[in-house]
Design brief:
alpha/beta, four-stranded mixed sheet, binds ligand EPZ
Length: 420
């Protein structure tokens, strides 16, 4: 298994091009199930997760062809030939469950493995299933699978989510685009990735209003057609490299980074002493004087993203003073804490909150993480630490960060991948 070696202490200066957003690209690829015509997606990040989604779609009958030299433009198309999403693929990537709504809408049946829990929490899919049932689906759970049928097709319904779920909003949006009649999704998630999905669906002929709000109205159409769509830049990758600039005291130009997608991250980092300004092509990030401890609490968008919590905690680990970082989305997303403490951080977890007392410097160590964002937080810690850090289990990073070591090395980091 590959590892990443970092010798900390170098300032980062230069330019990093932000890749397409993983969490936008995955549901956009699923849109390939909604039409027999070609869907062309550009700026698709080259990641283990987009690869896995390609495999899942291929076994449903959808060919996913790379049509650009850099492999980031994909053309998807083909009739659906198989409506089962098997355990072997779903267990690798929870986003696989997003095929449920589209398969039901197109073929009136689907058999999708239940994703099960993962390192960051139990992560049920009950909100997805209840919504589809309200639209007329008959759902049974059997042998670890969701067996779903809609003998009379899916029908529009008013669905009030008990909490804003990104995945449930996406699943139901795609199902509703081809259902008969009007669907209203209330208390819907408002993440930029959902707006991106809506924009692509509209380009495919869907009728959607309320895009970007928590009340989305979809008037179903009989068929959708092919379209071309560019994936939005990854706001979590942008925020992560902003933390890298701040933690090493350098200046990074994040090409493609969008201020309007960062919301609470920009405000919190500004309070902590990090300046982020818009340029003609992206965002310029630099630390002003010292870093100060500032509290953060994760919330659905436009609040502070749970996917930035681990990276922000590393920043707070070397800030002056104390801060409290509270995780409200997932119940078990502090696995990076013991690893950061092994690197000299002073963090105590009390239930949903972590108290971080800033230290002058972290020190390098052998570390590993059990999820993607925790892994990248250890890379950030390694950049700031004295001495050598080895990050194990790099496959987590490869699921969601494109060429992390090459992007950082190009800006002056002493970082390399050790194949293993
Ligand atoms: C998406 O996961 C992202 N994944 C996650 O990114 C992200 O952390 C999360 O949204 C929150 O922003 C993708 O977009 C592929 P949710 P999702 O449904 O859709 C509970 C990463 O590192 N819930 O908004 O699974 C759930 O347990 C990943 O890139 C139910 O109870 O998240 C959680 O506590 C990790 N029942 C909360 O809602 C349901 O049916 C929010 O989850 C659905 C969700």
């Amino acid at each position: 298994m590959d590892r990443i070696r970092i010798r900390g202490g170098n300032q980062l200066n230069g330019e990093i091009t932000i890749s397409g957003a993983k969490n936008a690209a995955l549901p956009l690829m699923v849109c390939g199930l909604l039409t027999d015509e070609r869907l062309v997606l550009s700026r698709v990040p080259r990641l283990a997760d987009t690869e896995t989604m390609g495999q899942l779609l291929a076994q449903h009958g959808i060919a996913v062809d790379s049509v650009s030299d850099d492999g980031r433009t994909l053309s998807l198309g083909g009739p659906i030939t198989n409506t089962e999403a098997p355990y072997d693929i779903v267990r690798k990537m929870r986003a696989s469950v997003l095929v449920l709504g589209p398969l039901l809408a197109r073929t009136r049946e689907a058999r999708v493995s239940l994703p099960g829990g993962c390192a960051i929490g139990t992560r049920p899919v009950d909100i997805h299933l209840k919504g589809l049932e309200q639209m007329g689906a008959l759902i049974e759970l059997d042998g670890g699978y969701i067996n779903a049928k809609a003998p009379n097709g899916l029908k529009g319904a008013t669905i009030v989510f008990p909490m804003p779920s990104v995945g449930a909003t996406e699943n139901l949006l795609m199902a509703a685009a081809l259902a008969s009649g009007r669907t209203v999704l209330a208390n819907a998630a408002r993440e930029p990735e959902i707006t991106d999905l809506c924009d692509c669906l509209v380009a495919m002929g869907a009728q959607i209003t309320g895009i970007g709000t928590d009340k989305i109205t979809i008037d179903g159409v009989a068929t959708l057609h092919g379209a071309s769509h560019e994936v939005i830049p990854d706001r979590i990758e942008t925020g992560t490299y902003a933390c890298a600039a701040a933690i090493t005291g350098g200046e990074l130009h994040l090409v493609g980074g969008r201020m309007d997608h960062l919301g609470a991250v920009v405000r919190t980092l500004a309070e902590a002493g990090v300046e982020i300004t818009e340029t003609a092509t992206g965002l310029l990030v630099r630390r002003l004087n010292g870093l100060h401890g500032v509290d953060a609490i994760t919330e659905p968008y436009p609040g502070f993203p749970t996917d930035m919590q681990a990276q922000y905690m590393v920043l707070m680990s070397v800030a002056s003073g104390a801060s409290m970082v509270t995780e409200t989305i997932f119940e078990n997303r502090f696995m990076h804490v013991p690893e950061l403490n092994r690197m000299g951080a002073r963090i105590n977890v009390h239930g949903k909150s972590a108290i971080v007392r800033g230290v002058k410097q972290l020190s390098g160590a052998q570390v590993m993480a059990t999820d993607l964002r925790a892994s990248v937080s250890l890379v950030l810690a390694g950049l700031a630490a004295k001495g050598e850090t080895i990050v194990n289990r790099v496959y987590h990073l490869d699921r969601g960060f494109e060429s992390v070591e090459r992007k950082l090395a190009a800006c002056g980091a002493d970082i390399e991948r050790i194949p293993g």
